[in-house]
Amino acid sequence: MSLQRPSLFLYLLLTLLLAQEIRAQDIIYFMDKSKVETKVLEVGIDSIRHLPSAKKSQLPTSVPRAFVRYIEYRNGQKYFIAQSKLYLVSGKIVLAHVLKLTDKLVQYQDVFTHKVKNIPVRKVASIHYHNDEKVNILDKINLWSGQFMAGQVLEVNEEVVTFENITDKKRKQAVDIAKIRSIEFKNGFEQEFSSPQPNK
Fold it and tell me: Which of 99, 91, 150, 167 is nearest to 129 (CA)?
């Protein structure tokens, strides 16, 4: 009798563990705030392959990486997805899945609405892809405040950076060097500046 109890206990324990294993799912959280319980099979360069149902007849499906905010694995670990960004000359930043770049336009898919949109290249300062690749269409001046300005840098000296401001009808403008965190030049070169010293 004492031998049957441990085996019954082990059977119940195994049944409980199997039930938890079947119930435990990965969760994909999308940019539009929806989510799906699934089994993540692969996180690729451009897409995420997953199995949305525990049914064996269900085929794996893929979603573009750009539509996913993060994945929460069944062990509780979270994996956040880096997004591509369009830096517009207006000072706005758009999270986007870039589909095509020509000398006239940028075609992208909005990561929130999934709608395909076009924007003229002249309205884009730079594109930062999710894999850290950058395409600078204009010189981009990044400020310590978190804002940026787009245009053509004319001169950099110890006190100011002089440039043509595209958002202000190409008006020549000077920016105090202490306000600038970095400059991303159109040719791909990037110049970093030291942090401003607090006033004593």
Answer: 99
Record the pTM. Answer: 0.71
Q: Distances in Å between the alpha carbon of 4 and those of 1, 13, 37, 103, 132?
A: 5, 14, 38, 77, 61
Report d(CA 24, CA 18) in Å as an integer.
10
Q: Which residues pair with 153 in a beta bridge?
A: 163
Task: List, for residues 78-113, the tens digit of each pLDDT value.
Answer: 999 988 899 999 889 999 889 999 999 999 998 888
Alpha-carbon separation of residue 128 from 94, 104, 140, 147 (angstroms): 10, 18, 12, 15
The CA–CA distances, whole Å, from 149 to 30, 88, 175, 189 equal 30, 9, 10, 16
Question: Could you give the maximum distance between any two Cα atoms of the chain, in Å?
Answer: 93
